[in-house]
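Mods, move this if it's the wrong board.
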Amino acid sequence: MKILNNLLILLATGSCAFSQMHHYDYKQELRNVDQTWHSLVLPDAVFGSTQQSLNDIRIYGITAENDTIEVPYLLRKRSKAVKTSSATFKKLNETKNANGYFFTFEIASEEPINHIHLDFDNKNFDWKIKLEGSNDNSEWFTLVEGYRIVSLVNASTNYQFTDLRFPQAKFHYYRLTIPANKKPQLTNAQIALTEVSDAFYNDFSINKLQTENSSESKQTVVEVHLDQTVAASFLQLEVAENFDYYRPLRIQYMADSIKTEKGWRYNYNNLFTGTLSSIDTDGFDFPSTSLRQLKIIIDNNDNEPLTITGAKIKGYKHELIARFTKDASYFLVYGNDKAVKPRYDIEQFTNSVPQQPALLELDNPMAIRKAMISKTPSLFENKAWLWAIMGIVSFVLGYFSLKMLKK
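Not the wrong board. Structure tokens:
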């Protein structure tokens, strides 16, 4: 029995001795690891072979003694950061003359602002407003003029664009002029300084863009095919028409595909819901998602379909900040459906991570040879072992039975 236990331990130890890297599909060697902290930008090729959550990304090192070590890292998406500082203010008065309605605000602090959000009880309007600033409530300076704000509410559309964005200004008083026939019912205003740090994007090339208009469903469906799977987070459509339009829109991405007798069947997941508008043409931001094919569904209702001439797709750069402590040959590995998100101590000590660690380069992706994995069969999968154990048990039982009979 002691020999049998030793054999089982030996078999279990042998099966665990293989490197963790063999549980993954791809590896890329890291070049010039010569400091404690390094950063590396994930190449686009990674996203087509990882989980959507990126939980299966690891950095492994092979030491001179052939030991495998795991390197802790932080994953950073180089997205834009938005910081909003609200300003304290009070509405002084509401007046009217032949030029329209006037709303005057007094700012309590001396901080600059560049953003005003307005809420109205009015449901449908299209106003071109004027914003002025003053330090003495007497001499006024124009900040924006002819700035368009819109509200469109009906059975099929609920769209509002009432945000004023303008160059940073510092005044004690602000005056809003609205040339409207009906009194604007201003219910609330939010005045703030909004600071946006630049995002670091990758621009993706489009392989194919096709548009189909359906008179039956009153929809325009745009399919965008990329060259490869990428991590995308921004879409902007190029529309040929110059007239005003407000169209409900859904953005979906192809999650998977199934081959049937009638051909390929594609399954799409919703990514973003909003409005395609001639007023706000900045594009659409959505959570960073690994994708290769997009479907944009535009509800035309009873309107003429729009002419979509092109699209722009971008995605945030994904960066790993890793800590190296030993001399080894290091590899970025990925491609494991069963891997879970790693948990590292450095997540709790981000203040000690340098702001700009040295950037690493990656070799080309290489498939990890699964044939190298030596899978040791379970002891009881082998019938010879099973018969041997049964024979030993039968012998022991028979031996003790005979001794008892003799007594």
